[in-house]
Design brief:
Blueprint (H helix, E strand, L loop, with lengths): L1 H16 L5 H14 L22 E3 L17 E3 L21 E3 L23 E3 L18 E3 L21 E3 L20 E3 L18 E3 L21 E3 L22 E3 L17 E3 L27 E3 L14 H4 L9
The chain binds 2-acetamido-2-deoxy-beta-D-glucopyranose (4 copies).
Length: 346
Amino acid sequence: MRTLVLLLTIGIVDLGIGQHYSQIQWLSHLRRRQWHAGLQAEDADCPLECNCPSAYPTAMYCHSRNLQHVPYVPSHIKYVYLQHNQITGIQDGVFDNATNLVWIVLFHNKLTSDKIGKNVFSKLKNLDRLLLDHNDLTHVPPNLPTSITDLRLGHNKISKLLTSSFEGMANLTTLHLQANDIEDVGGVFKGFKSLTMLDIRKNKLRKIPDNLPVRVQQLYLEFNNIESIPADFLTMYPKLQFVRLAHNKLTDKGLPSNVFNISTLVELDLSFNKLEKIPVVSMNLENLYLQGNKIKEFSMSSFCSAVDMSNFSRLKMLRLDANEINAKDIPAEAAYCLRHVAFIDV
Ligand SMILES: *[C@@H]1O[C@H](CO)[C@@H](O)[C@H](O)[C@H]1NC(C)=O
Ligand SMILES: *[C@@H]1O[C@H](CO)[C@@H](O)[C@H](O)[C@H]1NC(C)=O
Ligand SMILES: *[C@@H]1O[C@H](CO)[C@@H](O)[C@H](O)[C@H]1NC(C)=O
Ligand SMILES: *[C@@H]1O[C@H](CO)[C@@H](O)[C@H](O)[C@H]1NC(C)=O
């Protein structure tokens, strides 16, 4: 027992050191330590390639083993960890008995779309998380269960999204599509009634996608080729709080006046674009990133329509560094309007 406590402590110390330790890595790491300590008996149904510790009776650990295929998953398993292997495909049938599966973790493999069976996931009525980042997929796998809430497809080679790929996924809350080759999303997100987080960073978008999910709160569009914003963009998505558009091709001409003057927005990242003016923002905005543009003047009216005791901005963070202005261009009255900003980075 003392050994176990010691091992758990080491696990927690590790957690503190590694900033990017995810919950999944942590669980599997902890489990691996216990396994090596020989504290747990194995489950009889467990595939030879994997570990199924009796202390975690619904988990099957098969990560980081140079596996080239998905082992057959027994029916009582809910969580299957297959990350960091050399898996190229998923054959039909491997999950057929495992209808209780809740998480499938397959990131950092070599999956290609043509080697994923048409119905491998379709019977998993309880599937909640499907993690497929860092593979070689060119399409979203077909017939995904509608129970999924967290779908991760980042760092693949997906160029086209089909409406049929996401049919009926009304419970999806998080969708990661960053670092793919997507040029246009069409109207595929329209049916996502629960989606709050959409990550499409590092793709090839030339415009803000139409028909975003109505409940979206966080929208990540950095590192695309977006040149302009539609005038009604933010009024159409009243739940939107965080909008990140850094490293695009936005110019003043592409920003209709007042497009960002929306009281619900908390954070707006427009850094590393081609703006010459500070756009008008709502007095409720808290974080505004404008570094790396071509801004030449500091316009107080962008933050406060009138400067008096009752009119002031809630802005806390304002970055204007790497532009064409310096500290002496900021008028003294700015301190009344921007009274929550500790200092302005110029
Ligand atoms: C699925 O489960 C059934 C019943 O437990 C079992 O007979 C069958 O062999 C399993 N399927 C596979 C492919 O092992
Ligand atoms: C969505 O979630 C609700 C509540 O958890 C659940 O009752 C419903 O069956 C889910 N829908 C699908 C398609 O899984
Ligand atoms: C921003 O919107 C508010 C509230 O709708 C409005 O009162 C204010 O005049 C607008 N700012 C500008 C510069 O138009
Ligand atoms: C801002 O000032 C204007 C005019 O001075 C005033 O009518 C308005 O109520 C003030 N707005 C707020 C939010 O205090």
